[in-house]
Design brief:
The longest helix is centred in the middle third of the chain and has 65 residues. The protein is rod-shaped and about 105 Å long. It starts with 10 loop residues before the first helix and ends with a helix. Helix 1 runs antiparallel to helix 2. The chain is mainly α and about 110 residues long. The protein has one domain.
């Protein structure tokens, strides 16, 4: 086709069509890859955020427990209430540890 002479020479049109097809193909692949990367990034950030929120929650609960312990010690109140609070706190931590270990076994969907 490239060796043809005018008016049967269509090489320029052929190259232009090939260029357009190649550009469309590259653009569609790049867009698809960018979408995939965006989804993976969102999933990763969601996992990190969930872990960070759990850390903050337990840190705040621990600090609250320490404040109550100190308050209880200074007021010399009934230790049964204090022991009840600590056992509830320990139960919550144990339940959280079980749920965290289960979530590590099952991948996020």
């Amino acid at each position: 086709m490239c060796s043809e002479r005018q008016p049967s020479e269509y090489s320029r049109q052929l190259y232009e069509r090939y260029k357009m097809a190649l550009e469309e193909s590259i653009a569609s692949v790049v867009v698809w890859l960018l979408i995939q990367e965006k989804e993976r990034t969102f999933q990763y950030l969601q996992q990190v955020l969930d872990k960070l929120l759990e850390i903050v929650k337990w840190k705040l609960m621990g600090e609250t427990a320490q404040v109550l312990i100190e308050k209880e010690k200074t007021e010399h109140r009934d230790t049964a209430t204090y022991q009840d609070f600590l056992s509830k706190y320990a139960d919550m931590r144990r339940e959280e540890a079980i749920s965290v270990s289960l979530s590590k076994q099952w991948p996020m969907q």
